[in-house]
Request: fold
Amino acid sequence: MHSAPVALVTGASRGIGRGIAVALARAGYGVAINYAGNAAAAEECRRLCAATSPEGASTRFAPLQADISQAADRRRLVEETLRLFGRLDLLVNNAGVAPAVRADLLDASEESLDRLLAVNVKGPFFLTQLVARHWQETAKTWPAHGNRPKIVTISSISASTASVNRGDYCISKAALTMLTPLFAARLAELGVRVYEIRPGIIATDMTGPVKAKYDALIAGGLTPIRRWGAPEDVGRAVVAFATDAFPFTTGEVIHVDGGFHLRTL
Ligand code: NAP
Reply:
């Protein structure tokens, strides 16, 4: 069993998930680096984590393939994490997908909504349930004092911002935002605290196709802080939650969006 705390980060091969994995590695965590299909990107994330970790040991970081929309994959993911590391202190529900085609609301398809709900909502909901059951079973062995497990879910400004060319994505992220209050209320008795991070416009493969559009919007003042967000911005917020920076809190949401959510007059 690892003596250092261990995080399972879904969708950690690229983008925001990779930024979270590296930030956790820097903070001394071992990381299960989940990915869907891009093994080379997951291996690169492992290398970056090992290079950043104070311990420097690549054995503390393991790429684990699993499609979080599939029940059997979710079970295998949790089992492999526990087999490899012997413990699990933090679940980060980060993996998510954008629609394959940005379709106007009046042309939106059932197929696209089904896909987005399966990956962005069903996956994190039932993965969290699996991990919560594990914690419920093992809670009696935890030391009386010390850092209790945490859950951090990565939603989006799209949970509360209407984009009429990807309504399916907005609906999936709005649904996901209920995960945090639900599990925060249910798991408080175990001492498990549950948080949401709501990122704004972050530079990743997901936003690559709309880079020019967002460059212009940001330059024009869309966000009070006039720059793109970086995966590391989200990673640092996850580390703050994970390392007990907010002890008497649960169910909280932090906007990592350069102030996009502010209403101004
Ligand atoms: P990204 O660059 O497209 O990376 C997506 C990650 O999720 C990859 O690691 C991918 O694995 C993994 N993934 C996709 N489907 C999966 C599945 N079914 N099972 C397991 N892993 C899966 O996306 P991103 O921009 O980093 O976004 C990460 C999260 O932040 C998403 O939930 C997204 O909705 C949210 N978000 C993003 C932004 C933004 O501006 N980028 C803003 C707000 C919220 P592979 O590498 O194997 O494909």
